[in-house]
Amino acid sequence: MTNELYTGAEILLKSLVEEGVKEIFGYPGGVILTIYEALYNQTDIKHYLVRHEQAAVHAAEGYARVTGKCGVALVTSGPGATNTVTGIANAYYDGYPIVVFTGQVGLNQIGNDAFQEADMVGITRSCCKHNYLVKDVKDLQRIIKEAFHIATTGKPGPVVVDLPKDILTQKTAFNYPKTVKLAGYNPNYKGHPIQIGRALKMLSEAHRPVIISGGGVLTSGGYRELEKIANLLKTPVAHTLMGTGTFPSTNELDLGMLGMHGNFWANYAVSHADVIFALGTRFNDRITGCLQRFARDAHVIHVDIDPCSISKNVKADIPIVGDVKNVLVEMISQFEKSNPNIYPEDKQKWLEQINEWKQKRAVPVSGCKKLSALTVIKTLYEATKDLNPIVCTEVGQHQMWTAQLFKFNEPRKFITSGGLGTMGFGFPAAMGACAAKPDSVVLNIAGDGSIQMNIQELATCVDYGFKVINCIIDNGYLGMVRQWQEKLYHKHYSQTKISHPDFVKLAEAYGALGLRVEHEDEILPAIKKALEAKVPVMIDFVTEECEMVYPWVLAGEPLTKVLLSNDC
Question: Which residues make Cβ contacts (< 8 Å) with residue 145, sequence separation at least 6?
Fold first, then answer.
């Protein structure tokens, strides 16, 4: 232990170094200038200056998603802090580890309506895993240690640390804690072996089993174990939107995505299953449809590290609280010891039935006067698949088409907003991916509405050489909202026709490359030009206005009531 004293600002940076933090995303302001002064004099941490605080948090989450590490954002007080709330909520609902440091007015000013005061502890209480208001500089390093521990353990999520101005200037000794002990916080990583044995027996004896792979499989790193148990048990695997990439699309047992815009056969398989093995999913409404009619004949085995997620929406017959990877490792071990009879002939009939369902597919819209968005995204996939790109999306029709048409054989390659459905997420998340994986091809597939939510981050990309390729599906509408209006609101397109700037000129104004594509034979040359570019790119794909996303299960309907075309 040293007798040297450090300011709170210096202790913050030294603590980040102790946590292995190499990059942070932030935006300065008055009350945190002492931190930026400390940043100026160090070389251990790279700071990326964003153009909006929401983007800092999304970038930190994008960084966390592709690396599995904890992302970090740093912002000032008041509006700087409140601008982070959407990003914090997004990470909370999708379960990714970030620590957000927010500035705060001095301790003696809190509660006095001081300039740029905001109660971040109160504001974020419902949308983060935990939050802190630092009241003593001596507590700062302990709090930071706890924040990273909480963010990265159990079900990951965001932690907020609110930093009063005077805490950052006060001094104390630096002695970073090596361990964390938190009363009442002890995530259970080991599933109960008896429950796992019961689950294995039920799966082995099932006639029509289905595995549902959620985002928890990715978080736990259990994707190889998932493929092994699926192969051992001859059991098909459907994935949620957040589970994309957790099961190889080349495996013959792969059903692809289920849910509102999932594959017809995946929805039918789940609906007719006699046993569902759910891994790391919270069974939200987008994958269950009408809860009362969801898989009514199925026994449900539910594995999740978060006990609150089990039986919250769908009752579990065999609940298993634990880390998905650890549970699967134990199940594989028990299988190899007992070598149970898995009724291979019966399972084969089930797989044959699923193959029959696979013949029913969505019918593309015919007679497009402009480019088909489906054609654009299919071509984009074919042109880039050998480059193993990281694919980010905004939220809307383009998001669902991307999830349907891109195939992933490994995790952490598909980055999208699931639980919160945040327009404006994809572009800054792609920046975070570029910071983490500078040698990777990074695509952001966006709509002409959602790209405008954080379009200012083009400046950040140009400054730091983030070669994000923005592929804008430009149909002149808030497409998914318009789709609902067409089917459910008598074609009353209220406030969904949207204008936008000239994306080519806008890109050029920022110092990026702008391209426009209006004809099918221009798609591939534009993609090739974008891949060769040394700067960020915006490709404006001018597409058909009224193309719809199918399959489509309307809200409140069962998964078996699937619309496959405009004629349904």
Answer: 15, 19, 176, 177, 180
Exposure string over 57-66, b if 16+ CB within 10 A, otherwise e = bbbbbbbbbb
Cα–Cα distance, 288 to 270 (Å, whole number): 9
Whole-number Cα distances in Å, 200 to 276, 331, 340? 12, 7, 9
Which residue's structure tokens are 């999932």?
Answer: 262
CA distances (Å), 474 to each of 50, 471, 502, in order? 25, 9, 11
Rounded Cα gap, residues 255 and 276, in angstroms: 14
pLDDT at 41: 87
Residues near 114 by beta carbon (within 8 Å), at least 6 away in sequence: 105, 106
| 238: nearest Cα among 281, 200, 199 | 281
Q: Tell the burial category of 297 from Cβ atoms under 10 Å away from its Cβ (0-12, 13-18, 19+).
A: exposed
**C-beta of residue 474 within 8 angstroms of C-beta of residue 454:** no
Q: Helices in 68-214 by DSSP H: which ranges?
A: 79-82, 85-94, 120-124, 140-152, 165-169, 193-205
> Residue 367: what pLDDT?
67
The H or E element containing residue 527 is helix 523-532
| 20: helix, strand or coil | coil
SS3 302: strand
Say what the pLDDT of residue 289 is: 93
Neighbouring residues of 349: CB distance < 8 A, sequence distance ≥ 6: none
Q: What is residue 2's predicted lDDT score, i.e. its pLDDT?
A: 58
- Report the C-alpha gap between 153 and 241 in whole angstroms: 22
Catalytic residues: 53, 115-116, 165, 480
Q: Which alpha helices (DSSP H) does 242-390 contain, by range?
A: 264-271, 285-288, 324-338, 344-357, 373-384
Residue 488: count of CB within 10 angstroms of its CB? 11
The torsion region of residue 248 among left (phi > 0), alpha (psi -120 to 50) and beta comes to beta
Q: What are phi and psi of 535, to 5 degrees?
A: -130, 165
CB contact at 8 A, 545 and 475: yes
Task: With CA atoms as reference, report the closest residue to 537 among 517, 519, 551.
Answer: 517
Q: How far apart are CA 258 and CA 256, in angstroms?
A: 7
C-alpha dihedral (437, 442, 447, 449), degrees to nearest 10: 40
pLDDT for 439 equals 96
- CA neighbor of 83 nearest in space, from 45, 124, 47: 124
Q: Is 521 exposed, middle or buried (0-12, 13-18, 19+ CB in 10 A)?
A: exposed
| Residues in the chain, pLDDT under 70 | 1-2, 366-367, 568
